[in-house]
Amino acid sequence: MLLLVLLIVLDQSIGLVMHKLYFGATSGVEFETTFAFTKADADVIFTGSSKARRNYNTPLIADSLQLSCYNAGHDGQSLLFSYAMTKMLLSHHTPKMIVVEMFPEELYYKEVHYDRLNVLLPYYADYNEIREVADWRGTRDVDTSSVFYKLYPFNIEKVKLLSQSYRYNSMWLDLLKGIFKKQKTESGYLPLNKTITEKEKQQYIDEFELTKSRERNRHIDANKVKSLVGIITLCKQKNVKVVLVMSPVLKRYSDDKVYQLVDSIALSHHISLFDFTGDDRFKSFKYFADNHMNKTGSTYFSSILAQKLKIVIAQKP
């Protein structure tokens, strides 16, 4: 019993220290997430994965639109995170527009996308807005519509969250980087400067196709569809214009049903969808650093996108 008490005290103490360090950060990924969640007040907010962070030249778009812009893209995330981000943003600020970067492949179930929701856990106690999405970490493989779950709604994630230190697992190194290595971004935009070769481009495509062929039980993730619809619904409730954008990719898989699903969602909710995945203007490898665009490509893409966003902003509600 004494050992158990000591473990609990140690856990709670570590959690309190980590909480102070986390929310006291002045640079780094954790700081940027907290800023987007609680302080971002730009006219136009971009959200999504690393494709949003790398492909959208925020300063250029801001200059073109003559509106303030902030890029809230987060490396390694998916629509699940974008939904949580939108909830947090709209809880403290009402922008003119939210632009959602949509990589259609995201709509498929991927275990790693739930694992990466650990970035939400430091906010769990303080912000109710993110709890729905964070709780999905514990019910990812559970049929929540079943009679059994309705009678016994057990969620292992909620049990784990009784531990204060659990919320900051694997974050020590990132926090230290934020303290000692100041990473400067331009309104959240973090461009890549290298350029892949034609051979490397084909290698990325081959690797992606091999990964797809090996995935078993490939299916659309209901939580991701719910997230996408949730983002649209929240924006409409706040009279915020929402735009879905599929930025250029190395190769478009035109026979994939997720493209039709995204089209149907955009159409049924009467919102703008700009699909650049099959745009011939971005076929050249010179616009890519890897699976992401490089600075040259993101600048070219953003200049074209800005003109389309101008039209949407000018439209009456």
Structure characterization notes:
This protein is α/β, with parallel strands linked by helices and 317 residues long. It folds into 2 domains: 1-28 and 114-178, no CATH class; 40-109 and 184-317, Rossmann fold. Helices cover 50% and strands 7% of the residues. The chain has helices at residues 2-23, 29-38, 50-55, 58-65, 79-92, 111-115, 131-139, 147-151, 156-160, 172-180, 198-214, 222-237, 257-268, 295-314; strands spanning 44-47, 69-71, 97-101, 241-246, 272-275. The protein has a 5-stranded parallel β-sheet with strand order 2-1-3-4-5, sandwiched between helices. Helix 4 (58-65) packs parallel to helix 14, helix 5 packs antiparallel against helix 7 and helix 5 runs parallel beside helix 12 (222-237). It is globular and about 65 Å long. The N and C termini lie far apart (62 Å). The model has no long low-confidence stretch (mean pLDDT 91).
